[in-house]
Amino acid sequence: MLRGLRRSGILIPFIILFIALAISSKPFATKVNLLNLLDQQSALLVIACAGTLVFVAGGLDLSVGAVYALSAVVAARLAQHGDIGLALLVGVLVGVLVGLLNGVIVAIFEINPLIATLSMSFVVSGIASLITSGDSITLYHRSAYGDLARTQIFSVTSATWLTLLVACLLGAALWATSFGRHIYAVGGNINAARLAGLRVTQIRVATFAISGGAAAFGGLIDSSRVLSAQATNGGDTLTFTVIAGIVVGGTSMLGGEGAVWRSVLGILFLALIGNGYNLLGLDPLYQQVTLGVLILLAVAVEGFGRIAERWNIRSWRRRPAPQVAT
Amino acid sequence: MRIDVVETAEAPRRSFAGLEVIGISKTFGAVRALNDVTLRIEPGTVHALVGENGAGKSTLGKIIAGVIQPDQGQVAIGGRTVSMRSPRDALVHGIATIEQEISLVPGLAVQDNVFLGAEPHACGLVRRRELRRRWQMISDESGFRLDGFQQVSSLRLGEQQQVEILRALSRRADLIVMDEPTAALTEQEAHVLHRTIRSVVARGATVLIVTHFLKEVLALADTVTVLRDGKHVRTGPASAETEASLIQAMLGRDLSTVFPEKRPAPATAPVVLGGENIVAPGVRGVSVEVRAGEILGLAGLEGSGRAELARALFGQLKMSSGKLFIGGEPVRRPSPRRALAHGLSMVPASRRDDGLFLTRPIVENVSISSLADVSRLGVVRRRAETQRIAEVLSTLDVPPDRQRRPVSTLSGGNQQKVLFARAFMRRPLALIANEPTRGVDIGAKTAIYGLLHGLAEQGVGILLISSEREELIGLSHRVLVMCRGEVSAELVGDEIREDRILTAALTNTQEAESDSAWRGAGQPHPSLRNTIRRDGE
Question: CATH topology for B271-532?
């Protein structure tokens, strides 16, 4: 049963929470609320989808929050006077570049991804602050900048459409392409992947580059929604929300397992909780406690799943060493 | 509870009257692992449990060790039924387990590891002098020559096992259960362990070993119990058994035709895998040629450079000089990727470390090296993939209906076949099979022999590396024997005999010299490190 639970993972709790909220709160199940919810989560969703690829390849990207801020301020600064399309393009490229750098440090210089991307996040945040000199860059005079996220298509914002597009693309890349298979292989057993003839380094670098690009894109979407950018946006809070979403979704932190749809549900699940607290008028102080407990639960289910699997294959040597009597 | 070790070391052992297993049954899901097994382990003997994978020997070992509990039946010590819910309970009854995987703290000294968790202490402080005294006593008693102050991480594997044994003895264990103790050891280390086991038994302990290696059983055990399909076949003195009689008991049939008849390839067949003067870490200038349809055996002791040569040929190990030819073409800057592209495949020595993606489905494990064949524009065509793999798997006798299940659910033998399937899918010109039958049961071994033979018939050149000499002798058309990084002999036809191989493997090496060189080495040989963590079935 645990195995099944782990497999379906986030799906069942998500549905239960959704139904519970729909019953207990009238305004919850309205089109306005749900679309609004999706619109607000666009950036997080985009970043978490790409982050899933990094996770599955056995990596971790802690620089997404910083890249999110940097790309937004770079694009905003350029868009203040220059061409908006070009500004957005440069914004994404900045993210891809940081991602490539992360990948090179991790895959070629073999630095632990946690340390590498954490350090990178300091560097990137610093550069973002230098660009803005600590101020907020506003683009109210350039409302075309807002078209990226705020255009309504079939009464749904373009931010949501773009998110949907990115999620589908990344999900398909992981699920259906040979590139995706390679990512699973590299995260599952890097030695075996190398011996199977895969370009291990390139694959790892690619996942980081994609993550950097997605973090940048997320930054652009949010700056476009509010027509302003600040070096202090995003940051660690965003990074950890993304990681929490991925983990709650059921993607393994150890690599080799996971899926993009899981991360989408994971992020939305966290958003539902926040939304629920708002709508039901509960004390928001408990929200953090709930979040923490849920993440722990998600990780625990994974752990139990592993233990259960171990029992199933009855492998002697993988059991913990017997305790020695004292 | 504090255990007074001094008492064990000085006073006579409390009498252990033997252990009885009475009518034990155990079911896992739909699988009946053990079916009404009854046997007796006499005190002061080495008792071996043998059987194919899945015969239930590990399960029985685990029940005796308290790791798992039987559904029915009892374990009795000296006629009194005991209930053991954990390895800790078992220890109270004088039963200690030494797992295949070493569970020592590498950074601590030998003596601290031995008394870990049972240190003599006063007011929360370890009484170091007392600990030292007890160490001396237990060390003298065992007759092992270990330095108590040495860090465990600098010991060889065989010595680490001695530390584990000392730990078991220091806890007053009467019965020591060992699961595949020599699986990860070199031949010499296995000899040391055998001496060790005999000496502890001579001092009154009882040892139960669970093992695949029949030679070991015959050399070491006093009593042998054979299990087959969860049932007890027989228990008898080891002196009454031969390898053939054990195999027959394990399989329930004779195994006279284990090896297919050799049909050597003509000398005119093209060379599909060639190495010229290859120099790499552990390899000192070796030339090698494998012809199409030929099975070339590579023999040598552990550390002779045979594994390194194979890894250098596949591009896994960087060679400092030498040339590599695959299918007649030179390969520049070899890497596994280039080797595969030129038509060389490899089945690595360690399935878990270098071969499988354990959590992924079987199908993905097979197709990973050949995704380009089953995809269009980078998108994998699942139907084509499933079909191709069903074909490959059915030729290998792996149930193809299980394609979507994780590869970890397969038995060791079938996991090995998955790796063969991966190699097949590339339709290689040449194949390096590195320890292809390690940790698989006898049935699967026979199947793998057939596979290698069949591949050679189809014109694939095979380089076979194996620690099991009979396998090399039974399959190879030609054997190169390596010693200290060089080829010391080439044997063809009737020359391929056990004595010739062994002599050549020890050529430039006197017994004593090799013994001291191996002792002085300190660290496990690099090639060994990969083999340490291997399949535990």
Answer: Rossmann fold (3.40.50)
